[in-house]
Automatic annotation (TrEMBL):
Homohexamer. Interacts with TOR1B; the interaction may be specific of neural tissues. Interacts (ATP-bound) with TOR1AIP1 and TOR1AIP2; the interactions induce ATPase activity. Interacts with KLHL14; preferentially when ATP-free. Interacts with KLC1 (via TPR repeats); the interaction associates TOR1A with the kinesin oligomeric complex. Interacts with COPS4; the interaction associates TOR1A with the CSN complex. Interacts with SNAPIN; the interaction is direct and associates SNAPIN with the CSN complex. Interacts with STON2. It comes from Balaenoptera musculus. The keyword Endoplasmic reticulum applies. Keywords: Endoplasmic reticulum, Glycoprotein, Hydrolase, Membrane, Nucleus, Signal, Synapse. One of its GO terms (cellular component) is growth cone. This is Torsin-1A. Belongs to the ClpA/ClpB family. Torsin subfamily. The gene is TOR1A. Gene3D superfamilies: P-loop containing nucleotide triphosphate hydrolases (3.40.50.300). The keyword Transcription does not apply. It catalyses: ATP + H2O = ADP + phosphate + H(+).
Length: 232
């Protein structure tokens, strides 16, 4: 084979590879890689890995699979997971991330923030606010289906929480960027005492843990989260 023909053939293949996104995405991670998440796979993962969290399982399965299958969501998906330390909040975030992006938490499209690690100094709030907003804006511009996980929300400064709020609303776009396909997951210990109290009351009255309904938790949780000094 002549070198010139071989060169042209290789260039043709490369151009096709780069310009045909589905082919490219077979070999590299893509933002659009898993636009259609498998509800069955997520359910299987939750059932086989996450224990004792029947409420979280049900809500997360419906919310995440419903959201991903909606081609035009009106607002981003916002999940707020509450509970004591070691109850599986980070664990379940990892499961969600892995079901949307193969790289899970290591994906370029998944961003994890830990309040005490990334935003430790109250005196730098203005700087953090600007940095966080431009990080969210930049990443959602590059990939609409970006996932942002905020750990230790109960320790996050109220000013920073306010900086995230605009992105969670029903805006078609904010300064030319649409956030409607993004996913925000907030993890918090706020309300943990009340969750434990409700579970303990059920146990004392001889009921099964699985009998606890979301409405049994909702009121206790909203009051307790509102009373948290950062209002989350
Ligand atoms: N409900 C659960 N089912 C199965 N494994 C669990 C569960 N909860 C916790 N684990 C295990 O414990 C580990 C620690 O839990 P995880 O980090 O998710 O807790 P957390 O709720 O995020 O705690 P923190 O509030 O301290 O951040 C997980 O990586 C997982 O292996």
């Amino acid at each position: 084979v002549e070198p010139i023909s071989l060169g042209l053939a290789l260039a043709g293949v490369l151009t096709g590879y780069i310009s045909y996104p589905r082919l490219y995405c077979l070999f590299a991670e893509c933002c659009s890689q898993k636009q259609s998440l498998s509800r069955d796979a997520l359910q299987k993962d939750l059932d086989s890995k996450l224990f004792g969290q029947h409420l979280a399982k049900k809500v997360i399965l419906n919310a995440v699979s419903g959201f991903i299958s909606n081609p035009k969501p009106k607002k981003p998906l916002t999940l707020s997971l509450h509970g004591w330390t070691g109850t599986g909040k980070n664990f379940v975030s990892k499961i969600i991330a892995e079901n949307i992006y193969e790289g899970g938490l290591n994906s370029d499209y998944v961003h994890l923030f830990v309040a005490t690690l990334h935003f430790p100094h109250v005196s730098n709030i203005t700087l953090y606010k600007d940095q966080l907003q431009s990080w969210i804006r930049g990443n959602v511009s590059a990939c609409a289906r970006s996932i942002f996980i905020f750990d230790e929300m109960d320790k996050m400064h109220a000013g920073l929480i306010d900086a995230i709020k605009p992105y969670l609303d029903y805006y078609d776009n904010l300064d030319g960027v649409s956030y409607q396909k993004a996913i925000f997951v907030f993890l918090s210990n706020a309300g943990a005492e009340r969750i434990t109290d409700v579970a303990l009351d059920f146990w004392r009255s001889g009921k099964q843990r699985e009998e606890i309904k979301l409405r049994d938790m909702e009121h206790a949780l909203s009051v307790s989260a509102f009373n948290n000094k950062n209002r989350i």
